Structures are given as C-alpha cells and as structure tokens.
Amino acid sequence: MRDFTPEEQEFILRHQQHDVAQLMLQASRYPQLPVQELVQQVKARQKAAQKLPTWVTHPQAVFPVALSVEQSSSELTAAYKASLVSGKLLVDLTGGFGVDSFYFARSFTEVVHVEQNRELQEVAKYNFGLLGAANIQSINSTAEDFLHTFEGKADVLYLDPARRGHHDQKLHLLQDCEPDVLNLLPLLFQKADAILLKTSPMLDIEQALQELAHVEHVWVVALQNEVKEVLYLLRPEAPAPADAPRTAVNLLPNSEPQILTFTRTQEEAAAPSYADPQEFVYEPNAAILKAGAYRYLGQHLQLHKLHPNSHLYTSAQLLPYFPGRNFRCLGVSRYNKKELLRQLPEKKANITVRNFPESVADIRRKTGIKEGGHTYLFFTTDMHQKPVVLICEKA
Asked: Which residue has the higher pLDDT, 316 or 202?
C-alpha cells in the first residue's frame, strides 16, 4: 500500500459522485495521474457510501478492491456485534477491511486484527491510524498460523470465515468456508474463553447448532429487514445447544432496533390461535422468520395466525410496535383477475406471497397488475385451507 499524494486525494474526493466509466474515458485529461488506480478508489467509496460513512467521510481513508468492501460488515451491524461482548482482549482472526475490529476496539482494551492478505491488512492498519483506533494491533497472518503461535489467551476470538470458493461461488456450509471452524474448534477453545462466529444467513440454524455444540446464544441480525448475518456465541462450558436463546434483531437507521428473544422450547410449546383476517394484518421482519419464531411470536404478542404455515398475523386492535410491518386490511378477495382489478383503479399494487402456490412473477403475468402504488396484496392461505388475497394499506 502507498500513500496518495495531495493531488491524487483531491482527484478522488472531487470525483466521488461521478460516473466511474466516464472517468475512465476521460483518463487522457490527467496524464500525470494514475487514473485507473484512483477510479478504483472512487468506485469503492461509492459502494461504501451508505455502509461505511466513517471511512467515506475521512478524506485520507484508503479502500481496498471493491469485493472486500462488499464483503465487510456495515457500521450498523459491526456496532451491534460489538455491544454483545466485552473484555480485555479480542482477536479478530478474519480481520478483512477491519470494520468489525474497529468497533470491537470500543468494547475491548485491546484488539488484534489478523488478515492473511498483506495488501488488505496494510490498508486496514493505515485506516486504523487515521481513525484514531490506537488499541488495535494489526498482523499479516492466516488464522491458523496465528493460533499456533499465539501463547496468550483472549477473552473472545471472532471469526467471519470467507464464503467464496476458488471459482468465486458462494459457500455457506461451515466445513466449506475458510478457515474451517469445525476443524479448528478444539484449538479455538484452548486460546479463548469464548468464540463469536459469524456465518452465512443461508446456513440452517439447527444444523449449525448440532455441528458447533457449546452454543450459548444465537443472534439473527437484519438491517432494514434484510438478514445480513447470523452470530453464534460459543463457550466450552455451554450446555447442549438445542435450547440456546435466539435473538432476532432488525436494525433500523433512524429508530430503535426491533428485538425478539426466545428459545426453541418456547417455540415448540407455544399454542397459537387462528382467525380469519381482522382489521389489522402483520408481517414479521426477516430476522424473526429466519430465527424461526413462528408460533411463539403470535402467542407472545397475543395475535392470531391466519394459517400454521402462512406466518401472517391479525388483530382487531392495532399493535403499533409489532416487529415487522403493520397493515390495515381493506378486504379479502378470491384469486380472480377481474375481482382484483376492480379493487385497483391504477392496476398497480405491491405483492407478497406467503404460503401460496404461485410466485409473484406468475401472479403479475396472469393478472397484469403492475408494481407500485399504495395498495399491498398478500396472496396467502387462510385457516380454512383456502387461497385468498388480502387487500391492505400501510397502517
């Protein structure tokens, strides 16, 4: 990694909002500058604008290749992770661009950032200095090599295994990712009191619990209703993980996060009630659905379910703080093109499918309903096993 000159930094900042393809076409206007390299910085800053504002707003921050920015945590998810653990020493064994390490440094006296890619490690180390994170030590090493030479003991080891294969395919099984956490578990427990593991949202939680064992807590973390990561806190003394508490978290930039904690025992013991659609209809956020609080949610909030497998809820009175989206049900229709279009003067609606035999694309093709507008249609199955369409507006 090299430092950019003042002229190069000025070019990056001046063109931060510009089209990168156009910038490359205009490269001949700047014969004294390495335009291709600088355009890569512009491109990375554009990708990181919403995700990493602390880095983007610092004029001297340096960014790695765009893929490393895409794979890094957002600041909101990193800050949430850092709130879950604290202590004297945390070692981030898969440090990457360093966003997680930066936020862990606010919860720990010392953080060690370990990254096997030398260029990426140097970029992260440089930015730590710029951003004033003086309690982070950055080391160029693989996770395995570091563990074998590390003679101390950390409070927490953090891992976010790489989920890209040699041919850039996406991976999600623990044994396919790098490093192989399952193989490393005995060594990890020798080197730390606790392990915080981030996995792909695609990995089945039940499977992960069985493979990892010793899981004390699970967090499913969504950002604005999109699941970004699943976190497992492991301790050697943790009991069998089947009933480890699960916390579903939906982070929202301008309001308090939506949080629900439950256990599998509570989910299995819940006795939901069922009803036809009442005045209000509720759709749980993505974190709750991934965590599997299908029965418990309705009982906990005293809501009725529409069907065991629809995962939509209803009530006569509005529950304003439902962890998801709230709707007012304007009516219930059959799945009939003419009947539906009569309800939609502009022939537009937002369509969601829950426990319904057809996809959104199929429904739009058959009915001609265009996307958009203020009406929300839920194509689902009711408690009488009948396919129905709920015609709703936001409550």
From this structure: 316
104 touches 130 (CB < 8 A): no
Q: Give the per-residue pLDDT at 168.
A: 53
Q: What is the pLDDT of residues 314-336, one digit of tens each?
A: 999 999 999 999 999 999 999 99
- Residue-level pLDDT at 226: 96
Q: Nearest to residue 85, comparing CAs of 108, 110, 113, 114?
A: 108
- What end-to-end distance do the CA atoms of the chain give, in Å? 52
Comparing 4 with 280, the larger pLDDT belongs to 280
Q: What is the 3-state secondary structure (H, E, C) of the chain?
A: CCCCCHHHHHHHHHCCCCCHHHHHHCHHHCCCCCHHHHHHHHHHHHHHCCCCHHHHCCCCCCCCCHHHHHHCCCHHHHHHHHCCCCEEEEEECCCCCCHHHHHHCCCEEEEEEEECCHHHHHHHHHHHHHCCCCCEEEEECCHHHHHHHCCCCEEEEEECCECECCCCCECCCHHHCECCHHHHHHHHHHHEEEEEEEECCCCCHHHHHHHHCCEEEEEEEEECCEEEEEEEEECCCCCCHHHCCEEEEEECCCCCCEEEEECHHHHHHCCCEECCCCCEEEEECHHHHHHCCHHHHHHHHCCEECCCCCCCEEECCCCCCCCEEEEEEEEEECCCHHHHHHCCCCCECEEEECCCCCCHHHHHHHHCCECCCCCEEEEEECCCCCEEEEEEEEC
pLDDT band at 167 (very low <50, low <70, confident <90, very high): very low
- Span 238-266, mean pLDDT? 90
Kindly tell me if the per-residue pLDDT of 164 is higher than 70. Answer: no
Would you say 311 and 284 are in contact if contact means Cβ atoms under 8 Å apart? yes
Q: Please compute the mean of the pLDDT values over residues 115-143 and round it to a whole number.
A: 96
Q: How do residues 177-190 score in pLDDT, each as one tens digit?
A: 778 999 999 999 99
For residue 49 the two structure tokens come to 């604008």
